[in-house]
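Please think about what follows:
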Amino acid sequence: MKTKIGIFLIIIFVVLTGSCKIFMKATDVGAQAAGATGLINSNWASAISSSARAIGAAAEEITPEQEYFIGRAVAANILTNYRLWTGNSTLTAYLNNICAAITINSPRPSIFKGYFVAILDTNEINAFATPGGHIFITRGLLNVTRSEDALAAVIAHEVAHIQLMHGIKAIRNSRITQALVVTGTSAASAAGLDVGQLTSVFNESVGEIVNTMTRNGYSQVQEFEADTAAMRLMASAGYNPSGLITMLEALRSAQSSNAGFGRTHPTPAQRITNANRTVSSFRVTDNSSQRQARFSSATRNR
């Protein structure tokens, strides 16, 4: 039994630490050759080949087209829980113009189907971004904004999540998790181990890997990363990066900790502390007052 467990551990380690496509092919060929010469039995050869193919496929890059269609599916899921609000087409166009100003001056101005902002008909204070460029902002969040720069901060934060590919990283991690299941099932079957035995052997190590790969939502580090990137995007587009801090202060005043942003993000206080570390490094002339009239006009009915 110890020998079987040892061999199983080696398979998991080697498959996970190999170099994706090259290793996948080499392992597959090597397993078949070893099986043909009797070095390992046919069950082990099949298990190793299956494991290598699963991990290799999981690590393949997601194309822009795939990113868009994944995001569209996520967006469709969001819209099963929220209704789109179409009560003010001028406001929707205004949000998309702000988004265009931010993205056209960003490191990734063009994506497969472009960026698009829509409004969700709910008083919940929140915003969402899916892979591929779909951005949703709730009416509740719009109602606590007091300037175009604060609104630009919300959009820039969501654009940052898209451009930093935080959602795609979660999808890729999910692929790896599924591949681990294939690997474990194949190798366990070949070794003659049952699920209970595997659980006791890999309880701590596999649990640690899976928790890292499948954490719910974005991590605090990723949220802070998105805030910093948002300020950079704002500065590049001519917005005052301190608009992010203004927005976070509004969130701190307006929302409880168990709903919307408070449920899915670090606290506004934590984010303000993080943003204050870098906001002064962005040199932008503050002309936000010049945008106040159009903000007031566009957001009159929200």
